[in-house]
Amino acid sequence: MGRNMGLLVDYLPLTKRNSAAWDDVLGVVTFGDPPVNLDRTDIPVAAVNTPMLGAGAAICEVWRTQRPVESGQWARVRYRRDDNVLFGCISVVESAASACVEDGSLSALQAATENAYREIFSVLDLVGYGHLLRVWNYLPEINGDSLGTERYWQFNKARRDALIACGQEVTGNFPAACALGSESGSPLVIYFLASKTAPIAVENPRQISAYRYPQKYGPRPMFARASVLQESSAAMLFVSGTASIVGHETLHVGDAAAQTHESLVNIEALLDAANRIVGVARFAIGSLAYKVYVRHSSDLPIIQAQIASAVGSSVRIVYLKADICRRDLLVEIEAAGVQCSRADS
Ligand code: 3EB
Q1: Which among 94, 262, 332, 334 is annotated as catalytic?
Q2: Lower Cβ count inside 10 Å, N or C end of the chain?
């Protein structure tokens, strides 16, 4: 398989590695508060404040590559990259100072979001990784209101404005994404993967594309349901946050088990769509790594049971407590996977 197996994602306790073992790491994501410190300052760490659920030591998300890496920082964006893929992260404190709150035209969250995305696109321009592949967005009080609108709507407006301002609004060119509520008082944290070669955006035939949602959901969320990056010897799949939405409507309001099941049916449909694009049935529900966002901790057992019966026991799953962007959603599931191309082996 050699050196070109694509990216690998692991979920592991930080204690398992000594300093040198971080050499092949592109980036790390820690969950909960306080954020964990690495003894390596050249590795970008996204400190996401969504508590881990379930027993066990603090786990972090580790993105690794088999290719030589180089670290850098520009403005507030810290990154590390191999010759095709870049991991980056940014943390922005919402501050009224940078917003036009007086006349109500721009909330602090909108200003923070626009600035973050502009910095991200500047970095990508600068280092030549022109394609956003996957973006993870975490903002506190995602379901809260301010200035007469929902904060998730404000975030969506700012993300959309920044994408358009940076020439990224071409349909079919959106990254896979998720947007979750972190604990209140947390900064806006965005981490992302970008690539030099273009990924393929994948939509779900069971769902209206989010960037075509009806106006009643507010400014349109600009993301693809999944993205695939094909390299010579590996294909990588990134499944966006996936919830109990069919068409554009939330299904199974108030029923966490049924929402979990519907989300898994959506992921199956996405895998079919992705496999049609890649050409062979290679991504399977039992061979991905998962993150599951749970609104109410008390729903954890029922959600875990649903997922275990669908994906099997050999799969890596991390459960996090987070608010989901629609108030009626109780659970959201994301996934990632890598497959080696048989053509090369
Ligand atoms: C949905 O399908 C549920 O705003 O980036 C899923 C994935 C959702 C990404 C985003 C939102 C986002 O509309 C929520």
Answers
A1: 332
A2: C
